[in-house]
Amino acid sequence: MSSPHKHLIWLTLRRSLFRLQRAANRMRSPRRIVASAIAVIFLCAYVLNGFLILAARRTADPESLRLWLSGGMVLYLIYHAVRCVWTDKQVDMEYTAAENLWLGGAPLKRSTVAAYKVNTVFFSALLKTFFLVVALAPDVRHAGLLATGVFAALVLLETVRMIWQRFVSGLSRRHLVGARIALSAIALATIIQFFGQLAAITPAGSLPGVYVLNSFRAIGQIASCDAVQWLAIGWRPAALLATTVDITTHTAVQMLASVMLVPFAILALVRVDGWARRSTLAREQARLRAGDFHSPASSRANPTGTHCDETLADRIEAILPRRMGESVALVWRQALSIRRYYGTILFSFLVPTLLCLSPLLTGRVGNQWAFVVAGIALSTMLLAPPALRLDFRRDLKRMLLLRSLPLRPIHAVLGQLTLPILITVGFQWTTLGIAAAVAGPGWPQIIGWGGMLSALAVFTFATENALFLAYPHHENAQGFGMVVRANVMFLGKATLIAAAVGALLVWVSICKSIFSDPLSVPVYVFGAVAGTWLMAVSAILVTAWCWNRFDISADLPPE
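-> structure tokens emitted (559 positions)
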């Protein structure tokens, strides 16, 4: 073994030990003791739930589980592929700044660096395997084979995701447009098939809740169809291994195939990476020979629009009060940067809009409106924050610059959160307007739910940013903390939605018992909207307090 490879192995081991020690120290830190306690409670509750509740449920059919495991990987890959081709900014295998510095200039082959990058996903794949094994253990006979198959499938999925990302970065503009059209057509066909399967398995006139429950069956049938299973041929050995009923000689073949597909995928990643680098270099040289010295992103931008943008920003700042005008620069900065992500944002909100409006097709006028509103609320809390990271979560590496701006904490928070909140509110009111035109719920319902959903958007983004400022993390961070964080956030949002529904039901009963019929509706609407906006304003103030206490020397997480 050559000396650079020995040093790389030594660096990898030392980094892993250092990260484990750092994680233990951070868990014991007084600044993060609350997060550590929540993580421990969540893990204990999850494992206990796996032993007591999941073990008592009816077991799934091994064949259906096998189709779910293999086809589900392909469905996720289709989603990632569509998102990747519509993203203008392609990063080099998602290397951190430290990895670009130390590995990019090291005397290492590109294949070694690519294998090193795949090795970094092993720990996150182990954590995901643990959670899946706890959930699926009652459905299989051999938990060890289940863990091996799921781990191999997850590592293969991450490697194929990197292959596709590098392949897209090497495409020319003309071929990229063709890839966008083809993959968008595939995604559209998948969505049409989903609604077709949902309509086929659900009796006409059923409650929208039945459609929601049957949507999981519809996704399972899509994952089980022949087209998806042919695409999932690389994950079939791992799925067969995970759902093994009786150990035979075929089990050893399945295990060997599951494990060996990972190094073959790494070799494919190396080849595609080399082609992408050569293709990118050839395009750069062709542009230089043609006299084009601008980057593709800057050439697509409007070179004459900067002065007009600055003039319009100055006019808006002059109209607003002096204190509020201090936030305009941050809002305008977000608006200029959103030009690169408009395609991804439109795609991220198109699917939720269709799903939220799908209850209108059930033919039951009585509760269509309620399920549309519930869908908008779920999309606001679960889907909007990941799609609109145009706030403090995107600016972790620019915290020193943001802290140096002469802005009060509340103005900095308003400047960072205004644009994502306005986009989310636009999605809410567009969907509500279409649903109201079909269902005709009446103006009290439209005003009441519209006002509460707008407050929910403010509360959601303020809470997300407050938690981020209290416990920051990098964009592409992985590991134990991120897995637990994602699950705890999901459970916390579900609990919050349930509590909000309960509070609204209590408020309805109070209004009906105290006020007469003509007054109960306006009092209910005004009280509900006022209460939700009070919570939203409180969340904004909490976010401002978190930004005020943010300590760059202690709170910035290492890469």
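The chain has 24 helices and no strands.
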